[in-house]
């Protein structure tokens, strides 16, 4: 999910039995925007014996640090804890401290409710289901139609798809663009690299949780392509989520953007009303379909009301509720029933020139065949090692020196 700033909110599991008001109190800990603010009162209205308290952090990393600390302490966790995909392997390693939702959850909630790769990622090797899938981040590409036209690049959707057919053709189009424009081709090397990384069959770790950044030649090949584009002037050299990056949308500092479904909000919010109708979205992603982001709801064994917590988690992740959450805050549904729903597919964001934006992302989600295994430090490597190393290259460090920085940093984290 999209990461933004925010303060850490502590939370604890509920007490044994009903509270003084006669209700069972459940707690749920999330981060960023899950879209539950209106859903929780709806659930309470239909379940008068349940009272729900949600605590929410702005950043995913502090949320997960808090979770892991409380797992180690053996107390203090919420009845429902949200887990982002980049931290899922750390939870799977401690699966004994989480309830198997196949055992305590509603009998009619089967893995078949979700896209197969989404359900598989939260299933342990011995078949336990420790998380109900919430959102996903199917990737498309956003581009400024007006800037393409000004630089003499085609704007017809089919011609744009041809330019975005592979990473080689994408960067070749970027060379032509920057030769005919004062604007950069993309916003940030790390934002492009992250999509390329997610497309690989094996990422920073293999499925045995061994760090393979130095031996996985495909990672280095992607590094070389992105940093070559940087040296050619294709990057706006902006730090993602920073103030200059936010402003870069409004000032038309770049022409293309790797665009998981949740990126529609930042694109619109940062670009402002003066750029309405200038951004388009295409389902042609260089290198093929992939996913970037998404989370799960888990029920730790610390919960005093695991059955009620599992029932709430199942309801929140049902197709109907996920469509409501998407309308409210933008987390894209991972359930097949939602992805096929006319209620979802009819949705369009009028800010973009592309019609039927929900159809674009639903189609992209179904094209993803598997979820890449994320190792225990995967998220930290991407955010705290790879991104700074690529930023160093954008500021003048030689690409080979930046790669050494990345490899050494990943090894230190993985110790």
Key structural traits:
415 residues, alpha/beta, D-Maltodextrin-Binding Protein, domain 2, 2 domains, 9-stranded mixed β-sheet, 19 helices, 43% helix, globular, disordered N terminus
What does it look like?
With 415 residues, the protein is α/β, with parallel strands linked by helices. The chain has 2 domains: 167 residues, D-Maltodextrin-Binding Protein, domain 2, CATH 3.40.190.10; 205 residues, 3-Layer(aba) Sandwich (D-Maltodextrin-Binding Protein, domain 2), CATH 3.40.190.10. 43% of the residues lie in helices and 14% in strands. The protein contains 19 helices and 9 strands. Strands 1, 2, 3, 4, 5, 6, 7, 8 and 9 form a 9-stranded mixed beta sheet that branches. Helix 9 runs antiparallel to helix 10 and helix 18 runs antiparallel to helix 19. It is globular, with a radius of gyration of 22 Å.
What percent of the residues sit in helical stretches (DSSP H or I)?
40-55%
* Tally of separate helices: 19
Oligomer: single chain
**What is the makeup of the main sheet?**
9 strands, mixed
Mean pLDDT comes to: 93
Q: What is the CATH H-level superfamily of the largest domain?
A: Periplasmic binding protein-like II
CATH architecture classification of the largest domain: 3-Layer(aba) Sandwich
**What's the CATH topology label of the largest domain?**
D-Maltodextrin-Binding Protein, domain 2
End-to-end separation: 27 Å
Could you name the ranges where pLDDT drops below 50 across 5 or more consecutive residues? 1-14
Organism: Goodfellowiella coeruleoviolacea
Protein name: Cellobiose-binding protein
Pfam families: SBP_bac_8
């Amino acid at each position: 999910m999209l990461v933004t700033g925010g303060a850490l909110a502590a939370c604890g599991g509920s007490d044994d039995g009903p509270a003084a008001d006669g209700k069972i109190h459940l707690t749920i800990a999330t981060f960023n925007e899950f879209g539950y603010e209106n859903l929780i009162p709806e659930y309470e209205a239909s379940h008068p014996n349940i009272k729900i308290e949600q605590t929410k952090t702005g950043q995913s990393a502090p949320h997960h640090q808090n979770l892991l600390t409380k797992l180690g302490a053996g107390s203090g966790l919420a009845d429902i804890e949200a887990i982002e995909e980049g931290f899922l392997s750390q939870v799977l390693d401690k699966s004994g401290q989480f309830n198997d939702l196949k055992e305590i959850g509603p009998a009619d909630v089967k893995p078949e409710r979700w896209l197969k790769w989404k359900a598989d990622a939260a299933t342990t090797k011995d078949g336990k289901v420790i998380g109900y899938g919430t959102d996903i981040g199917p990737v498309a590409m956003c581009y400024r139609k007006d800037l393409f036209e000004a630089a003499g690049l085609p704007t017809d959707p089919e011609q744009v798809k041809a330019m975005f057919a592979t990473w080689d053709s994408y960067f070749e189009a970027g060379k032509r663009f920057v030769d005919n424009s004062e604007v950069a081709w993309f916003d940030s090397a790390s934002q492009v690299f992250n999509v390329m990384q997610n497309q690989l069959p094996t990422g920073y770790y293999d499925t045995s949780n061994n760090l393979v950044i130095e031996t996985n030649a495909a990672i280095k090949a992607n590094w070389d392509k992105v940093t070559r584009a940087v040296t050619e002037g294709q990057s706006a050299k902006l730090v993602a989520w920073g103030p200059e990056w936010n402003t870069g949308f409004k000032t038309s500092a770049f022409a293309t953007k790797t665009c998981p479904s949740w990126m529609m909000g930042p694109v619109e919010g940062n670009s402002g009303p003066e750029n309405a109708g200038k951004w388009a979205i295409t389902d042609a992603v260089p290198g093929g379909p992939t996913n970037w982001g998404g989370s799960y709801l888990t029920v730790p064994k610390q919960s005093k009301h695991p059955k009620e917590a599992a029932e709430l988690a199942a309801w929140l992740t049902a197709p109907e509720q996920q469509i409501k959450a998407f309308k409210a805050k933008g987390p894209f549904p991972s359930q097949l029933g939602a992805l096929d729903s006319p209620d979802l597919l009819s949705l369009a964001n009028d800010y973009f020139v592309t019609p039927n934006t929900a159809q674009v992302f639903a189609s992209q989600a179904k094209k993803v065949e598997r979820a890449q295994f994320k190792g225990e430090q995967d998220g930290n490597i991407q955010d705290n090692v790879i991104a700074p190393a690529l930023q160093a290259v954008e500021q003048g460090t030689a690409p080979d020196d930046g790669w050494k920085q990345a490899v050494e940093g990943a090894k230190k984290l993985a110790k």
